[in-house]
Design goal:
Length: 491
C-alpha cells in the first residue's frame, strides 16, 4: 500500500500512527485472503483426492465381485450334475478364467502396495528382450484372436537417434540367419518376471481397448542416443521424461513400442495416464473394466530398470502408442545376480491364461509329502493333487499334528517334503519349520520344505527362507507349478 500527496506534507505522530495502523490492517487483510485462497485450494485438492479414492474403491468392489458371480453361479449349477459334458467343460473354463482374473487383480494391488512403501526390490540378470516379448505375446494371443485382432511383432534394424527426436528405422521381421545376433543385441539388465509383466500389461491394455478387427503391433529396436533421459514432470502427452542433449555422451537403449488402433487417449486425461488409481472413465456406465493400476505399475517397473515410458495418442478413437526405453546390457553390472539365483523368480513369470492344462503323470511316485494347512479345502485339494502324481500325502491340520506325524515315522519312512501353510493358529509355519530344523536328521530335521502361503510380499519370502524353508510359493498356485516346484526341490 502506498500514500501519495500532490503537495509536501508534514505528518504528526498521530498521522504516522494512523498510516501504520492502516498498513498493518491492509497486510492482515491480504494475508487472510491468501490463507483463504490456500485453504480453498487445499480443500479442493482434498475433495478431489477423496473423490478419486471413493471412485477407486467403488471400482475395486465392482472388479473383485464381478469374477465371483460366474464362479459361484457355475459352481451351483455343477452341483446339480444335470449338465452335459460340453457345458461342464465350458463351466470349468469360465471358473478358471475368472479365478485367474481375480488373482491378477490382487497381484496388482500387492504390487502397488509394495511400490508405495518402497519395498519392491528386484534381482537383475541379463535378459533377452525378444524372448520376453514373445512370451508376453503368447499370453494375450487367445484374447486377441477372440476379437479378431491382428497381433504382430517386428524386430527393427539399428536406429540412430541424433538426440533431437528424429528417428528413422527400417523394419524387418527376425530371420533364422540373424536371430542369434539379435538375441545378443537385445539383451538388457533386468528382472525377467517384471520385464515380461511390463510388456504383458501394455499388450493387455492394447487388446482390451482395441475393437474387433483392429490391430496391435509390437516393435523392438536398438536406439543409440546422444544425451540422457532425466526425470521430468508429465507433459500433456503423458511423457515421463525428457532428453537432455549432451553430444559427448552416447547411450544405447532397447526401444519397445506397443501400438494399437483402439479408442485412443483423451487429451484431458493424458497427463494422468500413469498415475495410480486414475481411470479415464470410472462411471458405472463405463465400457472397459480394470482397476487403473496397470500403467502406473508399468511406469514404476520401467523406472526401476533405469528406463522411461511414454504414451502418445492423437486423441480419442485415434489409437495409442506406448514407448518403453531400457538401457541395453553392458558387461560390467556389479548388481547382477547369477542366472541360477533368479531361476525361481523366472519360473514365477505367470499371468492369467498362460498355464497349460495339467496332465499329471506319476512324477512323484514313491515320494512322501507332509501337508500342513488349517484350511480343510486346501488340505483336500493338495492331497488329491499329490496322489494324482503318485505321491503319498500325509495331511495334517496343525503344526502340532505335523510334529506328531514326524515322531510316528521311522527314519526309513520319514516324509521327503514338507508343504506347509504359514498363517495357522497357535503355531504358525515359521515356528513349525524352526522346530523341525532343531531336530536331528533321523527325526526329520533335514526335510526339504516349501512354504505355500497367501502371504505374498517379498518380506514374507525372505522371512520364510530365513526360517528354514527352501522355497516360498504364493497362493493361489497352478497345480502344474506346484508339482514342478516339488520336483525341482528334490533334484
Amino acid at each position: 500500500m502506498g500514500l501519495s500527496f500532490s503537495t509536501p506534507q508534514s505528518f504528526s505522530e498521530e498521522d504516522r500512527a494512523f498510516m501504520l495502523t492502516l498498513g498493518q490492517q491492509c497486510a492482515q487483510a491480504i494475508a487472510r485472503a491468501q490463507l483463504y485462497a490456500a485453504e480453498q485450494a487445499a480443500r479442493s485438492a482434498a475433495e478431489s483426492a477423496n473423490r478419486v479414492k471413493d471412485e477407486f474403491l467403488a471400482v475395486l468392489s465392482h472388479e473383485l465381485r464381478t469374477p465371483l458371480n460366474p464362479i459361484l453361479g457355475w459352481t451351483q449349477l455343477l452341483k446339480n450334475r444335470k449338465l452335459d459334458a460340453q457345458t461342464i467343460n465350458r463351466a470349468l473354463d469360465t471358473i478358471e478364467r475368472n479365478a485367474k482374473l481375480q488373482t491378477q487383480l490382487i497381484e496388482d494391488l500387492l504390487d502397488v502396495s509394495r511400490i508405495l512403501q518402497g519395498k519392491l526390490k528386484l534381482n537383475f540378470c541379463p535378459v533377452n528382450l525378444i524372448s520376453t516379448i514373445e512370451a508376453a505375446i503368447e499370453t494375450v494371443r487367445l484374447a486377441a484372436e477372440a476379437k479378431s485382432i491382428s497381433l504382430s511383432f517386428q524386430v527393427v534394424d539399428q536406429v540412430v537417434d541424433a538426440g533431437f527426436g528424429q528417428v528413422e528405422a527400417n523394419y524387418s521381421s527376425p530371420t533364422a540367419l540373424n536371430k542369434s545376433l539379435q538375441n545378443f543385441r537385445f539383451q538388457v539388465s533386468g528382472n525377467p518376471a517384471r520385464l515380461q509383466q511390463i510388456v504383458w500389461n501394455l499388450l493387455s491394455n492394447a487388446v482390451k481397448f482395441t475393437p474387433n478387427g483392429g490391430r496391435v503391433e509390437v516393435k523392438l529396436s536398438a536406439v543409440t542416443v546422444r544425451g540422457t533421459w532425466v526425470e521430468d514432470e508429465q507433459s500433456s502427452t503423458g511423457n515421463q521424461g525428457q532428453m537432455i542433449c549432451e553430444p559427448e555422451q552416447t547411450i544405447s537403449y532397447a526401444q519397445i513400442t506397443v501400438s494399437d488402433t483402439g479408442i485412443g487417449i483423451n487429451p484431458e486425461f493424458a497427463p494422468y495416464i500413469f498415475d495410480y488409481f486414475r481411470q479415464a472413465d470410472s462411471a458405472t456406465t463405463r465400457k472397459f473394466g480394470g482397476l487403473g493400476l496397470g500403467l502406473a505399475i508399468v511406469r514404476h517397473l520401467v523406472e526401476l530398470h533405469g528406463g522411461t515410458v511414454q504414451a502418445h495418442s492423437l486423441g480419442e478413437e485415434q489409437g495409442a502408442t506406448f514407448t518403453v526405453m531400457l538401457p541395453l546390457w553392458q558387461e560390467d553390472h556389479p548388481n547382477e545376480v547369477p542366472m541360477s539365483e533368479s531361476k525361481m523368480e523366472r519360473d514365477r513369470t505367470t499371468h492369467p491364461m498362460t498355464e497349460p492344462v495339467p496332465t499329471f503323470a506319476a512324477v512323484l511316485a514313491g515320494i512322501r509329502v507332509l501337508v500342513v494347512d488349517d484350511e480343510p479345502d486346501t488340505r483336500e485339494l493338495l492331497s488329491f493333487l499329490l496322489r494324482q502324481t503318485g505321491a503319498t500325502a500325509i495331511a495334517t491340520a496343525s503344526a502340532q499334528a505335523a510334529l506328531e506325524a514326524l515322531d510316528q515315522s521311522s527314519p526309513e519312512a520319514l516324509p521327503h517334503v514338507l508343504l506347509s501353510d504359514i498363517g495357522m493358529p497357535e503355531v504358525d509355519g515359521y515356528m513349525l519349520i524352526e522346530q523341525i530344523r532343531a531336530r536331528s536328521p533321523e527325526r526329520g530335521g533335514n526335510i526339504s520344505a516349501i512354504a505355500l502361503t497367501a502371504y505374498a510380499a517379498e518380506y514374507d519370502q525372505r522371512r520364510a527362507i530365513a526360517a528354514g524353508f527352501r522355497m516360498h510359493l504364493t497362493k493361489p498356485i497352478e497345480p502344474q507349478r506346484l508339482i514342478e516346484a516339488i520336483v525341482q526341490l528334490l533334484e
